[in-house]
Amino acid sequence: MVNFEVIIGIENHVELKTKTKMFSLGLVTYGAKPNSMVNVMDAGYPGVMPVVNKKGVELALLACQALNLTIDPIIQFDRKNYYYPDLAKGFQITQQYYPIGRNGHLTIIDENGKPLEIAIERLHIEEDTAKQLHEDFGTLLDYNRAGIGLIEIVTHPMLRSAFQVRKYLEALREILVYTQVSDAKMNEGSLRCDVNISLRPVGISTFGNKVELKNLNSISNVEKAIEYEIKRQTEILLMGQTVEQETRRFDEKTKTTVLMRKKTDATDYKYFSEPNIFPIQLSPTWIKTVLDKMPELPAAIRQRYLTKLNLKAVDVDIILQDYDLMTFFEAAIKLSSQYETIVHYLIGDVTAYLNQKNVTLGETALTPQNLVAMIELITKNVISTKQAKIVLQRILTEDYPPAKIVVDLGLKQVSDPAEIKAIIEPVFDSNLAMLEQYDQRPERVVKFFMGELMKLTKGQVAPGIGQQVVLALITAKQTK
Q1: Domains and CATH numbers, the chain
Q2: Whole-structure pTM value
Q3: pLDDT digits (tens, 9 = 90+) for 35-71
Q4: What is the C-alpha to C-alpha distance for residues 130 and 146, in angstroms, rounded to an integer?
Q5: Where are the alpha helices (DSSP H) in 335-416?
Q6: What is the pLDDT of residues 155-177, one digit of tens each?
Q7: How far apart are CA 25 and CA 53, in angstroms?
Q8: Which residue from 278, 270, 213, 282 is spatially nearest to 96, judged by alpha carbons?
Q9: Count of alpha carbons within 13 Å of 144, Cβ hemisphere only?
Q10: Residues of the chain with pLDDT under 70
Q11: DSSP secondary structure letter of residue 32
């Protein structure tokens, strides 16, 4: 049995979060009617000239900084020449020779719980192609996507397992979202992943033939495709055969990789400098101005939540998985120091509601102000946690003050000790036999009187205060 080492490199195409396309004024949209947002530049009309999207360059700079890349202050573009139906111009504007960023890294936690630095070779700016929709009768083309600004992020071939790839993609996606470089939604194609994978016997320095895995639309599928491909290539090598250099896709139904095309010699794209865009010198002052706008990165937020807010690691991970949830939480903790209670409702009842209704947090009426106001009503014993569930359901659908909801629905909790005493004391007087059992069965006696109190108040008594009153009455009655 021969042991093989897995060699993996990742290429990610990331759609930039701009309003217009990278080299034209065409609008960036998702889900619009096919071919309704096509610009003459992106459709390859003769005589049109590209103009570089300044916002796209800014976002690329932020990505470089977040991924620890060395920034090239001279922006230069090249033409990648090839004909394909999804490329109307017959060429793609890209950065083949002078990427905006080189030699960076992203740190992940490996299978052994140890930090692992993944080296990033380059990050370059380019434009997207049209979207292809393959049907039984042929292939349809939607040119709405053509020309959207992309950054391509390429790692060195240093990942060694499907687990490491998943951790890398999760960390990369988190950074892209938190820097607002991209919404990084794999299901919508704004974060795409190509995996290059090969195997070699342990101790051998030369690489084996690599297989490229394409069209992977989720991190889960990336992991499954790699695991299958490692198994497939291992079986081929153990039989003394050679792994063919080819491109494969992942079939979700069979959970296998399927041949798309064989690879022979490398394609000659006849790169040359883009003649319609002269090199652009970025001033150090402007670069600094852009980078000074860098939002707080996920790693820093995680550390702040763990050390300053003393939140549980598992809760922090859940909060940071959803950018909208995190921004909501940030707004809420500016209004209240009840950090754990805010987290409890956000990852509990609120998330359950979002999943049940299949909506996002932004599609609800919930505001940080109303959530904090509801929590304050609980803290002040105005309402119970049970009553809070009723209030929460209301403020999720209406921007309505929680205090007003309590009044409207008659939910106010009985929390005045004198009022509670007046309600429960007659029960003591009519149940002296039960009271006499206290020394032998204290829990049963307290539970009985608390149950009676809840019945009389229809569950609207503050439990903690109610129990204090019941215990005080037991003591007082026993001493008589």
Answers
A1: 4-285 (no CATH), 296-409 (no CATH), 417-479 (1.10.10)
A2: 0.84
A3: 999 989 988 898 899 999 999 999 999 999 999 999 9
A4: 4
A5: 339-345, 351-357, 368-379, 385-397, 402-409
A6: 999 999 999 999 999 999 999 99
A7: 9
A8: 270
A9: 15
A10: 1-2, 264-266, 479-480
A11: P
